[in-house]
Amino acid sequence: MRVAVVIVTYNSADALGSCLASLPDGLDGVDLTEIVVADNASRDSTCEIAKNFTKLPVRVVDLGRNAGYAAGINAGIASLGSYDAVLVINPDVRIRPGAVAKLAEVFRRPRVGIAAPKLENTDGSLQPSLRRPPTVLRAWAEALIGGNRAGRWGTLGELITDPQRYDLAGPATWATGGVLMISAEAVLTAGRWDESFLLYGEETDFALRAGSLGLMTWYTPDAVFEHDGGESGTNPMLWALLTVNRTRVVRRHYGFWAWAGYYAAVVVGEGIRAASGRPTAKLALEWLLKPSRRLRVLPQ
């Protein structure tokens, strides 16, 4: 299979070197077409690190501004030549040897448009990455008892936390966007990623769009990638953006009434946590209740 790689970066000098270093062994077994670093106007040495990597040819696409994750994916994919699938990864990812070929095997199944791997933390522990469909019941459960606790009670939470599920290959509603492989058919059929999400929610929207067109997301535990994880749980701006985008996805794909119940649950949940003094929840609640305060453009 001909595989292209798109790495979306923004001030990623601390992480990109180890990501690139993992590529030669990680790509063993596939026909690599090209590697593109789609950079959101980094102010550090990210682009220099990419250009100076000698083990494999790397091309930098400079977006000229901090346009977001979806914009980086769109720009990177638009610059590619011919390929059968494109591997989209964050710069804080390391690819285990042979993992890309194992991920590409997923497309032997009919009607698979997106392949999702198993993610592990730096210590080798499981990093939950699969999600169930967002529903009003799940939103209220997470609001009242917390997302992690809800995830441990059967199918009550959106995030799948049961370790046994991650030992089994199978379809998923959507998966964390830090590592995804997308078929050329899905790129053509589902179209561009929605850049209005900026960060978070764009992978959900793309997976749901692809699914509605008959192209499913398939998870395989055979392909293992190491992922540092993000700062959304501690950074108020990122958490607020993630929270608002969750409600936007529901409105777009499930309709007004589902959105109304879901939105109410998210507001209550963030309100409870804001009352306890959590800075992330305070900003998320403000953005939920006052749309004019929401971030429209990422900081440059």
From TrEMBL:
Domain Glycosyltransferase 2-like, first and last residues per copy: 5-124
Pathway: Cell wall biogenesis; cell wall polysaccharide biosynthesis
Presence of the UniProt keyword DNA-binding in the record: no
Pfam families reported in the protein's UniProt record: Glycos_transf_2
Taxonomy, superkingdom: Bacteria
Keywords, comma-separated and alphabetical: Glycosyltransferase, Transferase
Transferase is among the record's keywords: yes
InterPro entries the record matches: Glyco_trans_2-like, Nucleotide-diphossugar_trans
Family listed: Belongs to the glycosyltransferase 2 family.
Protein name (record): Glycosyltransferase family 2 protein
Organism encoding this protein: Kibdelosporangium philippinense
